[in-house]
Design a protein that fits this description.
Elements (H helix, E strand, L loop, with lengths): L2 H12 L3 E10 L9 E11 L4 E5 L6 H9 L6 E10 L2 E2 L5 H7 L4 E4 L3 H4 L6 H13 L3 H14 L5 H4 L9 H13 L5 E5 L7 H18 L2 E6 L2 H7 L2 E6 L2 E7 H6 L4 H8 L6 E2 L6 E2 L32 H5 L4 E5 L2 E4 L15
Parallel strand pairs: 3-8, 3-9, 6-7, 7-8
Antiparallel strand pairs: 1-2, 1-4, 4-5, 9-10, 10-14, 11-12, 13-14
The protein binds iron/sulfur cluster.
The site of iron/sulfur cluster has 14 residues, from loops.
C-alpha cells in the first residue's frame, strides 16, 4: 500500500460519512422567465457512520428533495444551485452520472416512499433484487438467487422461495415495501436514505424493519438518513433531528435535547399534535380519548407562495411584527442545538416559548 493511498484512507476515516453544507435546491417554474422556486434552502448537517439523522416535517417541507439531491436523483426541472454534499469524502454534486451510478445502489441506497412506482412492474421481484447483486457485486446467477432469498427472509417475507417469482402487483403494499427494502440492503450500503420506509407497514413489521436498519448501523457502520413524520420513530432511532419547514431547517438538535426542550413553535406544534394512547376510564374499560388532538392551524405553503419573513409566521401562535418583516437566521442556542426563530435571536428566549 503506497503512502498516498494511506493518506487518502486516513483522510476518509476522519471525514464524516456524509457532510451536507449549505444545500440549496431550486426548480424552474413552468414559465421559464418566472423566478426559480426554492425547495431546499441552505440545509447543513453531517452524518457519522452507524448514526441516524432524521428529517422531520409535514409533506412539502423539502425532506424528500434533500434526499434526492444526496442520491443525485433530482427531477430534470430541479438542480442543486448552492452548497455541497460530501459522501465518503467526494462531492456528489460534482460527480458525473456515470460516477454516480457506481455508488448508487452499492455504497448508498434509497428506500423510496412508494414501492409501487419504485419497483419495475414488469419484472419479478427476485430478478430486480438479483440484478443489483450481479451488477454491483459480480455474483453469478446461482449466488445472486441465494443472496436474494436470504435478503427476502431478513425483511420478513414469508415463503421467499415462492415470493421470489412474484411480480410487484401480486404482493400486498407491505410486502412490496419490504421487497424494496431488501433491494436497498442488497449491497450492504454505507449510507441508506429511507423515505417514510414503514408508513405502509403494520407495527410488528415496522418494528422488524427498524431493528434491521439499526442492526446494519451496529454491524456494518451503515449511516441512515430517515425521513419521517412519525415522532415516535424519531424519538426511538434518531441521533440527530432536523425539523424542516418550507425548505428551511427550523430546528436542529440531538434527539434527547429536542424532545426534552423543543424550542421552535413549529417543533412544539408537531410534538403536541402527536396522538397519545387512548385512556381507559374506571367505570368503562372501553378505551376513550379524553381530549381533542391538537393540530397546527393552516397548511404548508406551496413553493410559489412561501411568505416573506419567517416562512411559518402565518401559522405561528407566537408571531410578532418582526416575523413578518424578516427571515430569522438559524442560530446556535446551546451547543449542538440550533433554532431559526426570532424568539431566540441573540439567545433572548421569552418565557412563554418554554411552554
Ligand atoms: S420567527 Fe416568529 S413566526 Fe417564526 S416561528 Fe419564531 S415566533 Fe413564530
Amino acid at each position: 500500500m503506497d503512502a498516498s493511498h494511506t493518506r487518502q484512507s486516513h483522510a476518509r476515516k476522519e471525514a464524516p460519512l456524509l457532510a451536507v453544507s449549505g444545500l440549496t435546491v431550486q426548480f424552474h417554474a413552468r414559465d421559464r422567465n418566472a423566478p426559480r422556486l426554492t425547495a431546499v434552502n441552505d440545509v447543513s448537517f453531517t452524518l457519522e457512520s452507524g448514526k441516524t439523522v432524521c428529517l422531520v416535517g409535514e409533506s412539502g417541507c423539502g425532506k424528500t428533495m434533500t434526499a434526492l439531491a444526496i442520491m443525485g436523483l433530482l427531477p430534470n426541472s430541479g438542480a442543486v444551485t448552492a452548497g455541497s454534499i460530501y459522501f465518503e469524502g467526494h462531492d456528489v454534486t460534482k460527480m458525473t452520472e456515470k460516477e454516480l451510478q457506481t455508488i448508487r445502489g452499492c455504497r448508498m441506497a434509497m428506500i423510496f416512499q412508494e414501492p409501487m412506482t419504485a419497483l419495475n412492474p414488469v419484472l419479478r421481484i427476485g430478478d430486480q433484487i438479483s440484478e443489483v447483486l450481479r451488477l454491483h457485486k459480480g455474483l453469478s446467477k446461482k449466488q445472486s438467487r441465494a443472496a436474494t432469498l436470504s435478503l427476502l427472509r431478513q425483511v420478513g417475507i414469508p415463503a421467499p422461495e415462492a415470493r421470489i417469482m412474484d411480480f410487484p402487483h401480486q404482493m400486498s403494499g407491505g410486502m412490496r415495501q419490504r421487497a424494496l427494502i431488501a433491494m436497498a440492503l442488497a449491497c450492504s450500503p454505507q449510507l441508506i436514505i429511507a423515505d417514510e420506509p414503514t408508513t405502509a407497514l403494520d407495527v410488528t413489521i415496522q418494528r422488524q424493519i427498524l431493528d434491521l436498519l439499526g442492526n446494519l448501523g451496529k454491524k456494518y457502520g451503515t449511516g441512515t438518513v430517515l425521513i419521517t413524520h412519525d415522532l415516535g420513530i424519531v424519538a426511538e432511532v434518531a441521533d440527530t433531528v432536523l425539523i424542516m419547514y418550507a425548505g428551511y431547517v427550523m430546528e436542529q438538535a440531538d434527539a434527547a435535547c429536542l424532545f426534552t426542550r423543543p424550542l421552535h413553535p413549529y417543533t412544539q406544534g408537531l410534538i403536541q399534535s402527536r396522538p397519545a394512547l387512548p385512556l381507559c376510564t374506571e367505570q368503562n374499560s372501553v378505551p376513550r380519548r379524553k381530549t381533542r388532538l391538537n393540530a397546527i392551524p393552516g397548511v404548508v405553503p406551496s413553493l410559489g407562495n412561501i411568505p416573506k419573513g419567517c416562512a411559518f409566521h402565518e401559522r405561528c401562535p407566537k408571531a410578532m411584527p418582526v416575523c413578518v418583516a424578516a427571515l430569522p437566521p438559524l442560530v446556535v442556542h446551546t451547543q449542538g442545538h440550533c433554532v431559526r426563530c426570532w424568539l431566540f435571536h441573540n439567545h433572548r428566549e421569552t418565557p412563554d416559548a418554554r411552554a
